[in-house]
């Protein structure tokens, strides 16, 4: 059973093997036809060689984006949602979009017309010419590879140089357009915020005058600037804005609290407390209070006398009593002083009283006015920067390599074209002869019969070997 399977498998493998001998015989029988095909191939190859033109190629590389510190400083100062950010940054990260634009007729039409004029081809089409141009962006970079090929060797370098100059000019025009758009936008915004700033300041002024809140000239100045080291930019942060009256009132509240605490502390002191003198020195001027001066003199006299007399001496006791009396009088003056201070602070609180809603609204108006002034200041700074950028006109693109012509032709040579033509015509002839032989359906050799009968032939008659043929032919005699 296994042997039968092996035989069947061998037969299948024989069927799949290409019979090179049979192919050779087919080609041998159709040698005249093959000669015609090969002759045609040689003829076509000769024609191609006669009319052959060398294909020349050139290239250069250019960087689409160049680091610009000043531009980065401006762009970094813009918020993500800023309309100016959209105007200035348009396409900055869309390099592939730029590449598509650089391939478009709007950019390259002048170069195409130049080539068309040089070749004297009135019916030349841009699409056909653009096939000679390869513009590719290197993966992960902003480097643009540009390759141009042409059968006219003298035309390659001029075309590449014109394309290089065109790209630079295009970038300048693109940049100038973006800056002009930005300046136009800033001009309209500055005009608008000048009006807003004036109106918001007027509201603050009118409201402050209505409630006698006080208004400082610096109310609309930026409060302070914070340098953000993370992105190297300066942010303007407004203070919590309050009126002069509110500041005065808050100060009076704090002073009243301190004066009350000191008064209560002084009242609790004994008449001869040693703390009365330091408090008096901190409160009164040393030379402006007679009692304080007398106390200091008496204490000095007491200290000097104590070195000579005993403690129970009448003069020592007299000086101690005098010091005690001075302290009692000074304590009374301190109490009177802080009572008057407390009354003063209460009067200030009374004169500066306003409803909380008044202070809150004034603060809100003040914040709006400050933000308008800060925005106006920012817009004016950006306008000045864009004006300088427009005047500078610096190239954003750098050539890595100058336009260069490859010193040898590219593409197939004359011999190459001849060889390709002969090989192609030979293959075509082989295929045609095989198809013709199969279509005729004529058996030319015993191998074909064996293949058809699966090697199950009864006998083999060889006209050259008559003896063997007669023996084999007897099989058919009945």
Features:
478 residues; alpha+beta; four-stranded antiparallel sheet; 6 strands; elongated; disordered N terminus
The structure class reads alpha+beta
The portion of residues forming beta strands comes to: 5-15%
Give the biggest sheet. Answer: 4 strands, antiparallel
Global geometry: elongated
Number of strands: 6
What does this structure look like?
The protein is α+β, with helices and mostly antiparallel strands and 478 residues long. It contains 17 helices and six strands. Strands 2-3-1-6 form a four-stranded antiparallel sheet, covered by helices on one side. Strands 4-5 form a two-stranded antiparallel ribbon. β2 and β3 form a beta hairpin. α10 packs antiparallel against α13 and α11 packs across α13. The longest helix is centred in the middle third of the chain and has 58 residues.
Summary, kept brief:
The protein contains 17 helices and six strands.
Task: Show the helix and strand layout.
Elements (H helix, E strand, L loop, with lengths): L1 H15 L3 H10 L1 H20 L5 E8 L5 H9 L5 H6 L6 H9 L1 H15 L6 H5 L2 E5 L5 E8 L2 H58 L13 E5 L4 E5 L6 H24 L8 H8 L6 H16 L8 H38 L4 H37 L5 E8 L8 H27 L5 H8 L12 H8 L5
Antiparallel strand pairs: 1-3, 1-6, 2-3, 4-5
Helix pairs in contact: 3-15, 7-9, 9-14, 10-13, 11-13, 12-13
């Amino acid at each position: 059973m296994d042997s039968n399977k092996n035989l069947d498998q061998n037969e299948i493998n024989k069927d799949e093997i290409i019979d090179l001998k049979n192919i050779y015989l087919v080609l041998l029988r159709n040698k005249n036809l093959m000669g015609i095909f090969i002759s045609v191939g040689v003829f076509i190859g000769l024609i191609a060689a006669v009319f052959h033109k060398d294909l020349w190629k050139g290239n250069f590389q250019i960087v689409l984006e160049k680091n610009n510190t000043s531009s980065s400083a401006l762009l970094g100062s813009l918020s993500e949602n800023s309309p100016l950010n959209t105007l200035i940054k348009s396409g900055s990260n869309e390099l592939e979009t730029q590449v598509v634009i650089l391939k478009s007729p709007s950019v390259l039409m002048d170069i195409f017309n130049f080539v068309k004029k040089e070749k004297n081809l009135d019916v030349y089409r841009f699409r056909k010419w653009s096939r000679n141009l390869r513009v590719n962006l290197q993966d992960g970079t902003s480097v643009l590879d540009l390759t141009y090929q042409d059968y006219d060797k003298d035309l390659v370098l001029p075309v590449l140089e014109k394309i290089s100059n065109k790209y630079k000019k295009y970038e300048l025009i693109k940049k100038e357009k973006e800056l002009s758009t930005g300046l136009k936008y800033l001009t309209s915004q500055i005009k608008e915020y000048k009006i807003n700033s004036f109106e918001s300041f007027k509201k603050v002024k009118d409201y402050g005058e209505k409630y006698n809140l006080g208004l400082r000239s610096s109310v609309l100045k930026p409060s302070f600037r914070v340098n953000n080291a993370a992105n190297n930019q300066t942010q303007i942060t407004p203070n919590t804005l309050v009126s002069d009256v509110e500041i005065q009132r808050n100060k009076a509240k704090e002073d009243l609290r301190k004066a009350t605490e000191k008064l209560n502390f002084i009242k609790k002191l004994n008449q001869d407390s040693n703390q009365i003198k330091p408090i008096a020195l901190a409160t009164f001027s040393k030379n402006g209070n007679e009692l304080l001066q007398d106390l200091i003199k008496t204490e000095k006299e007491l200290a000097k006398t104590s070195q000579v007399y005993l403690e129970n001496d009448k003069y020592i006791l007299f000086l101690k009593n005098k010091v005690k009396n001075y302290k009692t009088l000074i304590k009374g003056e301190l109490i009177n002083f802080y009572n008057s201070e407390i009354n003063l602070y209460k009067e200030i609180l009374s004169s500066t009283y306003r409803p909380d809603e008044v202070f809150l609204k004034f603060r809100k108006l003040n914040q709006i006015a400050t933000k308008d002034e800060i925005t106006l200041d920012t817009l004016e700074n950006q306008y000045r920067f864009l004006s300088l950028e427009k005047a500078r006109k610096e190239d954003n693109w750098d050539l890595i390599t100058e336009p260069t012509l490859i010193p040898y032709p590219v593409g197939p040579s004359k011999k190459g074209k001849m060889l390709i033509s002969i090989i192609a015509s030979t293959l075509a002839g082989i295929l045609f002869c095989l198809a013709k032989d199969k279509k005729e359906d004529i058996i030319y050799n015993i191998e074909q019969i064996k293949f058809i009968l699966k090697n199950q032939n009864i006998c083999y008659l060889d006209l050259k070997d008559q003896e063997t043929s007669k023996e084999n032919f007897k099989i058919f005699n009945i």
